[in-house]
Amino acid sequence: MSAVRPIDRWFIDEVLPHERALLAMAMRLCGNGEDARDLVQDVFARMLTTEGWAAITNTRAFMLRTARNLAIERMRRSKIIDFRQIVDAEHMELAEDAPDPHQIAEGREAMSDFQQALGQLPERCRTVFVRRRIEEQSPRQIAADLNLSLSTLEKRLARAIELITRALEPRRRTDYDQPEEAGESAMVE
């Protein structure tokens, strides 16, 4: 009668009792019995060749993690695609490019906020902003039409952008941060 090695005793006592749980997980990972049984055998082979086997404190968790890692490795190396995956992919609904109702509502609200901010700009700033940023006219053309220097045009455009940006900022201010009704809140050029 041959002597049983310590690793064999450990395998019988600590590994084999978890074979059912391992096979169930392998079935979920592989999708078919044959591949699942192969995965279980690969896990058993790894368990028997693990150098630090005596230091494993939770054999079941170690086996399940090993099975998961081996299954992922197999999927990465697989060059054959399961026919069911192709069929599933063909029947999958493709995402639409059209915005959903929530996005449409948000867009309308943003546009309304922008139009309100634009309407509150001083006339000179609004004119420069609309012609340059919305109508995309050249700065030289706008400056010539309005009889302005390019420097003045740039200052008005910068002021318009600043005021619009400030108007569109999220309302995070507390009551004491709110501007005075008459002084600070009035948009000036």
UniProtKB/TrEMBL annotation:
InterPro entries assigned: RNA_pol_sigma-70-like, RNA_pol_sigma-70_dom, RNA_pol_sigma70_r2, RNA_pol_sigma70_r4_t2, RNA_pol_sigma_r2, RNA_pol_sigma_r3/r4-like, WH-like_DNA-bd_sf
Pfam families reported in the protein's UniProt record: Sigma70_r2, Sigma70_r4_2
Domain RNA polymerase sigma factor 70 region 4 type: 114-161
Gene Ontology molecular functions: DNA binding; sigma factor activity
Listed Gene3D superfamilies: 1.10.1740.10, Winged helix-like DNA-binding domain superfamily/Winged helix DNA-binding domain
Domain of life: Bacteria
Domain RNA polymerase sigma-70 region residue range list: 18-78
Keyword list, A-Z: DNA-binding, Sigma factor, Transcription, Transcription regulation
Entries under NCBIfam families matching the protein: sigma70-ECF (TIGR02937)
Family designation: Belongs to the sigma-70 factor family. ECF subfamily.
Name of protein: RNA polymerase sigma-70 factor (ECF subfamily)
